[in-house]
UniProtKB/TrEMBL annotation:
The keyword Transferase applies. It comes from Ophiostoma piceae (strain UAMH 11346) (Sap stain fungus). Keywords: Kinase, Transferase. Signal peptide: none annotated. SUPFAM superfamilies: Protein kinase-like (PK-like). Residues 83-293 form the Aminoglycoside phosphotransferase domain. The keyword Kinase applies. One of its GO terms (molecular function) is kinase activity. Residues 13-33 are annotated as: Disordered. Residues 16-33 have a biased composition (Basic and acidic residues). Pfam families: APH (PF01636). PANTHER family: AMINOGLYCOSIDE PHOSPHOTRANSFERASE DOMAIN-CONTAINING PROTEIN, AMINOGLYCOSIDE PHOSPHOTRANSFERASE-RELATED-RELATED. InterPro entries: AGP_Transferase, Aminoglycoside_PTrfase, Kinase-like_dom_sf. This is Serine threonine protein kinase.
Length: 310
């Protein structure tokens, strides 16, 4: 059932509690936003000028605008400079993770501009299909696995917090009640879980819920509210095939880091699996480069039905 029908199936709250829930509950009153990166006046002028001139010779890719064979600019009202800070963080701390080099990043008239390296390569699935040898295919996925292992080896600044690489808010438009806004940070994995389900408690489940669905939600709540969770790990958050570029049997780049941050250890696997339900083949490849989390996948599948993407 869609997220919009949830309230009808749970016991009604007081008007006061509903008003409180309208605002995401975070652990900081003031969000931390990324600072400009190499945003000197000449660089900003160059990017703005090329968006007006050379960009017309290239095909726009959603919110990404190529301005030369080597540079692309990500620009949109939902683009946040935290994504540029993430790529800078990874370039400095995880050299084996191929991220685009940031040329400059700045905010102008309420919009973030991220000018970055235009990485060459095709979708990993296109490259995977092109490779004729099973050994070459295995090496391609092994390369991706080593990249993911390096990402997971990064040590979080806090053993409990769910947050961006700079300690600020996160973004994921697939979480329906975030309303395309940024959310968090959270002081613990448990607090993050509570926010994901809008602080619904077991005793608030309505009597008109199907008994099987109610049992699933009760199990989800019990698992989410476990006292002990592993420390968050650094997570891309959107590992669909088009965000992993490959060429000549090697991964050349991982792009679109807007959903990234320090998340529970299962988040990469479950979000990738659930969001690629139309790509069963890709789902079948996941265990070759991501640790599977079957219990958490069940938990997340239940949450996604009730509190997930509209």
């Amino acid at each position: 059932m869609p997220f919009l029908g949830v309230d009808k199936l749970f016991k009604r709250r007081t008007e006061k509690s509903k008003a409180q829930e309208a605002q995401p509950k975070t652990d900081k009153q003031d969000d931390i936003r990324a600072s400009p990166i190499r945003a000197s006046w000449p660089r900003r002028f160059k990017i703005l000028l090329m968006l007006k001139t050379t960009a017309r010779f290239y095909t726009r890719l959603d919110c990404c605008v190529p301005i030369s064979k080597d540079l692309i600019v990500k620009i949109n009202r939902n683009v946040d400079s935290t994504e540029a800070a993430t790529m800078e963080f990874l370039a400095a701390n995880a050299p084996g993770v191929p991220v685009p080099r940031v040329y400059c990043a700045f905010v102008r008239r309420g919009r973030a501009y991220i000018a970055m390296e235009r990485i060459q390569g095709a979708s990993i699935l296109a490259e995977y299909i092109k490779l004729e040898s099973e050994d070459d295919r295995a090496r391609l996925l092994a390369h991706l696995k080593s990249i993911m292992q390096e990402l997971r080896s990064l040590l979080p600044p806090s053993p409990n917090r769910v947050e961006s690489c700079i300690g600020g808010s996160l973004y994921d438009w697939r979480i329906a009640h975030s309303k395309s806004a940024r959310f968090g940070p959270f002081g613990s994995v448990r607090r993050f879980h509570q926010w994901l389900r809008q602080d619904i408690r077991e005793e608030e489940l309505g009597d008109n819920l199907d008994s099987r669905e109610k049992e699933k939600i009760v199990k989800m709540i019990a698992r989410q509210d476990a006292e002990v969770w592993p420390a968050p790990v650094f997570t891309h958050g959107d590992l669909n095939p088009s965000n992993i570029l490959a060429k000549d049997g090697q991964i050349t780049g991982i792009i679109d880091w807007e959903f990234s941050g320090w998340y529970p250890s299962y988040w990469e696997y479950t979000s990738t699996y659930i969001r690629n339900y139309m790509r069963a083949w890709w789902q079948s490849l996941l265990p070759q480069f991501l640790d599977p989390y079957p219990e958490d996948l069940t938990m997340e599948a239940t949450r996604d039905i009730w509190w997930g993407e509209i």
